[in-house]
Amino acid sequence: MIFQNTSQFADLLDEQDPLKNFRSKFLVPQHKGKDTLYFCGNSLGLQPVTAQHNINGILQTWQNLAIEGFFAGEDPWLGYHKKLTHTLSSIVGAKSEEVTIMNSLTVNLHLLMVSFYKPTGKRYKIIMEGSAFPSDQYALASQVKFHGYDPKDSIIEIFPRDGEFTLRTEDILEVIDQHASDLALVLFGGINYYTGQCFDMLSITAAAHKAGAYAGFDLAHAAGNVVLKLHDWDVDFACWCAYKYMNSGPGGISGIFVNEKHFANPYLSRFEGWWGFKQDERFLMPHDFKPEVGAAGWQLSTSPVVLLALHKAALDIFEEAGGIEPLRIKSELLTAYLEFLINDINTNNNDELFRIITPKNKVERGCQLSLVCKKNARQTFNFLMENGVMGDWREPNVIRLSPVPLYNSFMQVFELGQILAAAVV
Ligand SMILES: *Cc1c(COP(=O)(O)O)cnc(C)c1O
């Protein structure tokens, strides 16, 4: 599509957008009596209008039925999470039994590593992306130390080549290949939080398997953002948080994927708790653990139903939108429009004032664009905030902007472009 830097053109794109009414399903922070231009869905998605209603429903059931709320009422709390796994599994490209909803992201990363990181004398190394999100770095280093190994020797981080910002798939695959004799696990992000680069999960998984290792992904920035095919890609395990692109509330509940081929894998061990016990026999409370089939067997504790109610409010909107595919079609266009407007600013200034470090190729990115500001980076970001833009700042000079197809319009992207242009005059 040939884009134009005019409000009429943005208007036209909005008119043609089949998802344009979904904006009204979210609550937007106000700035000087107007909706902010919210481009921070990569950090915290907006609140669904129905969130309060859903929480009130839980409070009401608690009030009216108390303990009986687990078994009675419209949506009994026992098994409430199962109502969500259908929508969620389609978002991540999994079978229903391969997905369960529990805990938060870093906790789940640890629990999955208990199962999938089993270092032995020779095979103990982990390959990960360099400069991964800090929590992942801490989690992996502590797992390695827990098993008595030294992170310096055991964790191999892959960094971009000199002068480049993102990783080349060929380099990732080569490092995996080089470690075929000592590799236990490849653990990558689906999308890097800083650059917005989406990794080739299919190739990385295949290379890991060829090297005799497991492949797992942290999908914090990928779930609800890009189309995922975890089952078809033969990924071993994955986890994510639901408060970024899945709009399920700050610190909201997370989810995990375990490939069905591992359901009966005797090599895997896991930490167990009563919520992972077969649901229909759980309350007989027998001595020995009998797991629920599938990913649900990884659950430990009573589900936090209030958080599930928030998650449901958000996932219902995905369901109504027809799942991730139609959202992704809009998302590609929306992000391409922002990219066009930013490049237009550079052209008009005869200078690369904003260098987009996110890959140009749409299969290598989600909705986020990360800009390195050549001049007055912090002032530029402040100017955005003063003008009602909520974006996201990363030291020393990077602004991350994420147009989200569920609640951002082409007109908002156009207005963002105008404010960015005004920031650098
Ligand atoms: C957001 C994010 C986290 C945050 O983890 P929590 O346990 O939810 O606080 C972890 N890893 C990555 C890659 C993230 O993007």
From TrEMBL:
Key words of the record: Hydrolase, Pyridine nucleotide biosynthesis, Pyridoxal phosphate
Cofactor field: pyridoxal 5'-phosphate
Residues reported to bind pyridoxal 5'-phosphate: L105, T106, F133, P134, S135, D136, D218, H221, Y243, W274, T302
Keyword Cell cycle: no
Molecular function via GO: kynureninase activity; pyridoxal phosphate binding
Superkingdom classification of source: Bacteria
Database matches in InterPro entries: Kynureninase, PyrdxlP-dep_Trfase, PyrdxlP-dep_Trfase_major, PyrdxlP-dep_Trfase_small
GO terms for biological process, alphabetical: anthranilate metabolic process; L-kynurenine catabolic process; L-tryptophan catabolic process to kynurenine; NAD+ biosynthetic process; quinolinate biosynthetic process
Keyword Hydrolase recorded: yes
Pathway: Amino-acid degradation; L-kynurenine degradation; L-alanine and anthranilate from L-kynurenine: step 1/1; Cofactor biosynthesis; NAD(+) biosynthesis; quinolinate from L-kynurenine: step 2/3
Substrates-to-products reaction catalysed: 3-hydroxy-L-kynurenine + H2O = 3-hydroxyanthranilate + L-alanine + H(+); L-kynurenine + H2O = anthranilate + L-alanine + H(+)
The protein's Enzyme Commission number: 3.7.1.3
Sequence positions bearing N6-(pyridoxal phosphate)lysine: K244
One GO CC term on file: cytoplasm
Subunit: Homodimer.
Family that this chain belongs to: Belongs to the kynureninase family.
Protein purpose: Catalyzes the cleavage of L-kynurenine (L-Kyn) and L-3-hydroxykynurenine (L-3OHKyn) into anthranilic acid (AA) and 3-hydroxyanthranilic acid (3-OHAA), respectively.
NCBIfam families: kynureninase
PANTHER family given in the database record: KYNURENINASE
Protein name per its UniProtKB record: Kynureninase
Organism, scientific name: Mucilaginibacter xinganensis
Lineage: Bacteria, Pseudomonadati, Bacteroidota, Sphingobacteriia, Sphingobacteriales
